[in-house]
Structure formats: structure tokens, C-alpha cells
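Could you please review the protein record set out just below?
***
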Amino acid sequence: MELSEIIDIVKAKLVAGNANGVVIEKGFSSDLMSDVLTIDTEKILLITGTCNVQAIRTAEMADIQCILLVRGKKANPDMIKIANENKMVILETSLSMFNTVGRLYQVGLKPVY
């Protein structure tokens, strides 16, 4: 699924990186960064309400290039700077995690597990 489609579906705002041509195959939602470190797959969208530099660093270690912040959380300037340096995409949506995951699952985004 094209990242641009995901942006439309969850009414997200792009705040870091470039969404052009980015393809997402699976989604994973968690606020526990220790759970994120268990993922071993590519082309994944991390859906989280954890809004701090730790989330960016964890995504970096897990080789995740796209993070969607839910519940109206806003990426801070440090998060945006680190994401841009690592060619990561950060999106923000006001939707809840439950609503976001439900919408994406309904249109065919596959889960990691």
C-alpha cells in the first residue's frame, strides 16, 4: 500500500521525511518500545502514541522507516531532526490507535503478527 493512501485514510499530516514512493506492507501498533524491538520485517508502519526521541531511536534500531503518531500527539523538533537525518517519515493523526488500526486493517494493511 502506498504511504500516500495511508495518509488519506487516517487523515494524517506529514511532519518529517518524504512519503513519495514509500510502500508499506505491514503495520504494527504499540506504545511499548521493547515490543517494537521484537519486529524483524521490512516495509512496516509503526503506529504509536509514544511521542519522544526514544520512539525514533527504537524505530532506527528496528529498521523501521515510517512512524505514525496517534491520539493527536505532536512530534517535537528533536524527533523531526533525527527522523530527517535518518530519512524516516513521521506522520501525525488525531485518531485513536484503535480507530487508526481498524481503518488500515479494513483496507487491507496486513499485521506483523
User: Anything to note?
Assistant: The first strand starts at residue 13 and ends at 16. The chain has a mean pLDDT of 96.
